[in-house]
Amino acid sequence: MSLLDQCSSLQKRVRHLEDVQKSAAEAAALSSRLTEAREIKTRVQQTVEKVNLLRSNSIEISASELQSIDPLTPLSKIIQRFSENPEAASLVKFRDWNKFQELSEKWHLELNRAAVRSWKAFVDVKTQGQSPEKLKASLAQTETNKKALEEFNGIYRTLHPLKGEFPENSDHIERVNELSERLRHKSEEFDYNVNEEVKAFLTAIQQGGAPLELLTDEVLN
Fold it and tell me: Contact, 121 vs 61, CB < 8 A?
């Protein structure tokens, strides 16, 4: 083989090696973007599943703030450019890729916050709107009321902390509904129709002692 032929052969091998290197670099760049896209998809999907769980159990989500967050516009630009020029450089051109990442993260975090707020509001409603402390202050401390309040308190102390535990499934939500129903039945046992003189006397007893002037005929009866 002549020197010219050998040089020509070497040149072809160099060009082939350059093409391989370019392909490897392109593949690495595309792989990096694909990994980032998968991470975004996973986070968004997890949050959407949270929302769907609440909605499937008739728990409304208020997320009006999401209207001002638009990750789809930069994504549409990215897709359009990539369809015209399917290279990794097309994905990151004009900062659209960074903008898509930033807005997607913001969208996912805001939706997650909305889901948590809605869950806490749901559990608050299910606690019948009153804590045992508030009820104790408004109820005459008759034996019937004290017994019912003690049982109410036990159910409430089981139910109330569940607002800090976002449900993993419908069983968790059903547990809240069940405890709320028990709380409702127990609250129906409270006697609010206690004479004011009796209520004042019992309140004074609870606070350490009642003066004799509170011991009226109504209280004695």
Answer: no
What is each CA distance from 221 to 198, 210, 214, in whole angstroms? 10, 16, 13
Q: Which of 36, 37, 27 is nearest to 86 (CA)?
A: 27
Nearest Cα residue to 58 out of 118, 98, 9, 102? 118
CA distance 69 to 65: 7
Whether residue 119 sits in one domain with residue 39: yes
What's the pLDDT score for residue 195? 55
Angle between helix 143-159 and helix 170-187 axes, rounded to 10 deg: 170
201 part of a folded domain: yes
Q: Are residues 157 and 117 in the same domain?
A: no
Dist CA 165 CA 203 (whole Å): 37
pLDDT at 136 over 90: no
Q: Quote the pTM value.
A: 0.75
- Domain around 51: 26-126
Q: Which two tokens stand for residue 192?
A: 């609010």
Same domain as 122, residue 35: yes
Residue 13 has pLDDT above 60, yes or no: no
Name the residue with tokens 């009006």: 64
Judge whether 107 and 66 are in contact, CB under 8 Å. yes
Assess whether 114 and 187 both reside in one domain: no
